[in-house]
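Hello,

Following up on my earlier ticket. Below are the two sequence lines again, exactly as submitted.
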Amino acid sequence: MQTESARSVDTLSLCWLTAGITLAILPHGLRMPVWLLPLTLALVLWRLGGGLKNWPLPDGKYWSLRILQLLIMIGGGMGVYISFHTLVGREAGSALLVLLAGFKILETRHERDFYIAAFLGFFVIVTNFFVSESITTAIYMLLTLLVMFTALITFNDHNQSLNSLTRIKTAGVLLLQAMPVMLVLFLLFPRINGPLWGMPQDAHAGLMGIDDVMEPGSISRLIHSNEVAFRVEFDGTPPENPKLYWRGPVLWYNDGRKWSRERVIGIEPAPLETAGTPVNYTITLEPTSQRWLFMLEMADKAPADSYFVNDYQLLAQEPVNKRIRYELSSYPEYALGKSNAYEIQRALQLPDNFHIRTIALAQSWANEETDAASIVNRALRMFNEQNFYYSLTPPLLTGDNVDDFLFDTRQGFCEHYAGAFVVLMRAAGIPARVIAGYQGISFNPVGNYYIVYQRDAHAWAEVWLDGRGWVRIDPTSAVAPERVQQGIAGALPEAIIDVPAVFGQIQLSRNMWQNLRNTWDAVNNQWNQWVISYGPDRQALLLKKFGMKEINLQLLAVILVIIAAIVFAVITVWLLRQYPPARDPARQLYDYFCRKLARIGIRRMPHEGPLDFAARVARKQGLLADIVNEITSLYVSVRYGSQVTKLAALKKKINAFQPEKILRIKTARS
Amino acid sequence: MTESIVLERLSPARGDHASVSSLIRQRVYILPTRPGFLLCVAMFTMLLGAVNYNNSMAYILTFLLVSVFMVCMLHTYRNLAGLVISGAKVKPVFAGEMAGFPVIIDNRDGTPCPALKLVCHPSRKAKRAAQQSYQPVMVNLQASQWQQVEIPAPTINRGLLPLERVIISSCFPLGLFRAWSYIHLEEQCVVYPKPAGIDQFPAPVAAQEQGQEGVKSGANDFAGFRQYHPGDSIRNIAWKALAREQPLLVKRFSGDGSHTLMLAWEDVGHLPDIELRLSQLCRWILLAENQGWIYGLEIPGFQIDPAQGTLHKNRCLEALARYGIHHAD
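Thanks for your patience. The regenerated structure is below:
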């Protein structure tokens, strides 16, 4: 290795580099403190101004600017610390990296700085993936990478002998040629489970979904979300919509304002009696950072690394921080058996000094009705017959939210109805609890699977009836049966389901839009399954297809090296294949000319020079003498003189040269 | 042009270059550059991050960089591999001037080879002796294009300066690898002695009677301008032309054409050093040619009858350059 002499960075390369790094930084900007992105861009702009407009830069010449730079650096670091209360971890680390990239650009003068800045850019790209791994992010980052490579190519093309398009093309060619080896490495690189040294605390922040606390508004805020909660593949046909209750957290405790899970959870699951034929299905759950797994009511066996607790929640051993897949079989016909007395006691809990009017109402029912079932029916009848409304935008509840809802506003979403219903039941002496989860599915015909969106979030109730155990009661269905019959799409105004207004009311365009969405989700699903979720399990599955049963890391490493070497060898041979030496275009034309002459029986001898040959042609076929001499002298002057000016003329002449025709015409004339 | 060197590809050539006579194959070497090694460290860090977070896209980016790194190696190698390199006639220079060794680089591939760097790579001794640095030459070759460049090398002593080995290198496209090859072209530059000494000619040949006046009459008739060469008399410089911002010109004079000089070894016998003698002779030859003398040269091992003209002058100067040097060619 020989050290190259320090070369300063030209402005064009610098522009490409800053473009690439800016592209890499921009997505971070939306997640970072507001001051960070403008500050970083200002640093980048400062350097660009130095290159393009000769602005003073902080270097040896301007000590005051160097001090300013140092102050900004310290200030930036402190800003990051104040914003995140730490300098490590995913978010703060990314912020520091973004800042660092900005400063590196600012001080880029020489070759070494240029490369370091470019490599910092690669790191910034990687940190983007810790936040989003979607297809759009991948494409965006690939473009960013293309710009970065163009910057490197521009820098290495010292005299800018290539135009921008060629440089971009070269970068693209490099990326394309790199794909096969990348693919082999990605598929076969031995994957191991779990982190090497642990994840920072904030590795899984900001996920949206069902929470284990329910209060007015906690579910209706999900209604505008078109994000996927999970995807389901059924073996056979799925049950009808009214049976599609996806059980999530079970909420026992009411503090007067909100519902939450019990802290003490019995680990002995309640006895489950099942009947009929089970439904088999596989769920691909998006990360929730929570432990519960959703299941169709009611599954009998917990999948690997998960278990049932006494209220029949399915809990995973670890919080779901990555997309996971699990298989279940559920029985739509079931009886969740008798519970123990402790549970019943807990299912009667009510907060002191809350819901006074509601409790009074329920107690009056309890006096009038004889059995629990008729009290349940009475409550459902009230929702159904009195003027209760199912509304996405219920009025804000300021006082006691159950009393106000039941007696004043009477407009609510599923969490209002489920919450009020359970309070009513408990006040009437019937054990009851709230179940949060999802209700309904959407079919994706493109991918032939079903999607449960966040907007399918739902809450319902379970009451404990003597001899029947826990029975599901969905008070929302008493108000808005279409919610349960047709899913959320049937109950919502159409504007909520995200068909853009431009598609208007025309059915065809609406269908097209739906089709597009389905295709996009199907592509995303494949992407999730094969790219994002590709880990030890998927790798084992893939290797099994090729007959490798036992996954041995050493063996895998050897196979990886061998296959990567073969692929790389193929690329090498293809890239370094010997092109036939580019033949002289004039010579090619002349050969063509000779072939034309050979057609009329005059063949050029290998030893014959062009001029000799022309003389012989003239002797043999005097009629051709003029044109042959003309072409030959043109050829000679092109071949041994200037190529560019006369080549076109030679081409035109030789293409137009038709010895047979000339002979015919001239013979006829004479 | 004596011979051509073709930089080797991985696969043995299938006689495609048969058209080039006397081909010498030369190996191409390749190693990562400092940024290349730095990227390796960066990629390893990224891989650790990818494993720790089990993040597929981080894996993909890392592996993409790894394979771009590998493919980049092929591209850098291909920049050099397959180039056909040959020399051309070297123009003589005076000692102390920069010699320029012409090198013809022929890219017969369909892909451009930008930023080829050629630099003279002399032995340590020559490097120390030449106090100037060897300047690299950058060449950009388009697809199927050839170019001639001159590789500069400083000269110190008169004589024959062989072209030391030349390094041709390329870091294109990403600067992560440097491919290089050594070119040995059997070229040598004739280095004339540096003109020095006095302007006063030795006595003209006795046979010419008007000799004494010849020196003067040499400055008689103005015969036009020509470019300044080292050794030209300052008296003959066209100062007025210089004042008009024209290049340095000297006035040419033609005398009667009958004054003849025989520059001989004895005329410089009084000088202590051989090199000084050769420098004096050199100066006289330039002056004589300049002033229109008919002159001959007689030094041990070389003799040429009086004559005139650039060709004659060059033969005389070359004889001075080669004085006392045993050479094979």
